[in-house]
Amino acid sequence: MAKGRYIKNAERACAAKARFETAQEAERASDYRFRAYRCPVCHHFHLTSRSGAATDPEPEPPKPPEPKGPKLADLDWSALLEPNKSKSARPAKPPKPKPPPPPPTRVARCLGPCGKDGRAPLLVEGRLVKSRKIADNRLKAALKKDLEVRIGMDDPPEVLAVLA
Ligand SMILES: [Zn+2]
After folding, report:
1. Which of the listed residues 10, 51, 131, 147 has the most CB atoms within 10 Å of its CB?
2. What CATH number corresponds to the domain at position 137?
3. pTM for the whole structure
4. Least confident segment among 9-23, 29-43, 54-68, 92-106
5. How far is the CA of 44 from the centre of ligand 1 (A)?
């Protein structure tokens, strides 16, 4: 069985490869990068596709894949080398506390564009209120009469956003 496969491989190699009269000729043709071998099929010489396998008509079978897993070099040796800097020695951080819920907001009606002081006149729950100074220029420019805005609960209220 092994013999038959060997011959079959040799025949395939023979058909595919250049044929040389002598081993020297074959090796010279490859600039001596490859070794020549005598073909069991045509009894001429072919070149191995790898150097060093002079009698093997086929390249060496591929090595079985290395077992998966961390290589020695990939392992974290820092714990052994620097025990004081060991990651595991550090106390585990407590999980981050959940962010507080967003503060409540309310909706107000804008009574006009932003004033020169950066504050907008708002109608908040029936009361005329001046907003806190608005730092966001885009928000400032968007404010106009009869626009609904979302504001904070504080006083003076901060304009948070313009409602559509
Ligand atoms: Zn051959």
Report:
1. 131
2. 2.40.50
3. 0.39
4. 54-68
5. 6
